[in-house]
Design a protein that fits this description.
272 residues, alpha/beta, 2 domains
Length: 272
């Protein structure tokens, strides 16, 4: 005889799946000009076409990418949308993936310049293609490097999705590994030549070492920083990043996703 609780779980799963599909459809309609084409492919579990945003740019992607997740987090939830105010017109995009945050910011303000860092060669090629296809190559520089605590080489562990690749080995990124070049945040900031800048970090655990190894002089040049912390990868990683930023004079707040992951927003009170 079937367990009645199985029917309950099946029902709840079905309701959740329908709710998620409805949310995807609504967000496709709100943000994309080609939402019908994308929705048809999504519902059929087929390869999605490039996302053609109503704002005018296109987000191309590969088989290992997750453009629907990027649509939700970068655009609908605007997790990094508060970056780049009037003083910090240069953005360092660390863990740029295929360029969603980079395109969002350069399309929003035609004076913003970006240095985008993506160590995975396949993902970086897609990032470069998005920069070229959208005609923003004069304002975006792409570097196939990981930003960590120091210059050198490190193994990058591939994940099931390109957003899960990490320099720290864990179950979610326990695929094949490749050696990639690394640089420190000190060097990445110095490379910009900017006195005031913004930094976005989504480095799947590398954010802790990155910040703890950054000099006071470099941190003083940063007006605002938004990073995703991953306590499941580096225990107490969010608290350790927070300690560095508070000591450096930032006003900080957390936006938790769950008990072990979230967004940390750091700004200086002097930003106009």
């Amino acid at each position: 005889m079937a367990d009645p609780s199985d029917h309950g779980r099946t029902f709840r799963h079905g309701v959740a799946a329908k709710f998620w599909a409805a949310r995807v459809l609504w967000r496709l309609f709100c943000y994309l000009r080609n939402w019908r084409e994308v929705w048809t492919a999504y519902r059929a579990s087929e390869k999605l076409p490039a996302l053609h945003f109503r704002r005018g740019f296109q987000l191309h992607h590969g088989l290992g990418d997750d453009p629907i997740m990027l649509l939700h987090t970068v655009f609908a939830k605007s997790e990094y949308g508060g970056l780049v105010r009037r003083r910090s017109r240069f953005l360092v995009d660390i863990g740029a993936n295929i360029g969603a945050v980079t395109l969002d910011h350069v399309w929003r303000d035609d004076e913003v310049r970006v240095d985008a860092y993506e160590p995975d060669p396949v993902t970086c090629a897609t990032l470069q293609n998005n920069v070229l296809q959208n005609g923003v190559g004069s304002r975006v520089r792409v570097f196939r490097e990981a930003v960590t605590g120091q210059d050198g080489l490190v193994l990058l562990w591939k994940g099931a999705s390109s957003v899960l690749s990490s320099t720290i080995r864990r179950p979610a990124s326990d695929g094949p590994s490749i050696p990639v070049a690394t640089i420190s945040l000190d060097r990445a900031v110095a490379r910009t030549g900017a006195d005031r800048l913004a930094v976005k970090v989504d480095a799947e655990g590398a954010e802790v070492e990155m910040l703890e190894c950054t000099s006071d002089e470099t941190l003083a040049k940063i007006d605002e920083l938004v990073l995703e912390y991953h306590d499941s990868i580096v225990p107490d990683g969010g608290a350790r990043c927070l300690a560095v930023l508070v000591k450096a004079g930032f006003r900080c707040r957390r936006k938790p996703f769950n008990s072990h992951q979230g967004i940390l927003i750091a700004r200086r009170d002097t930003i106009p």
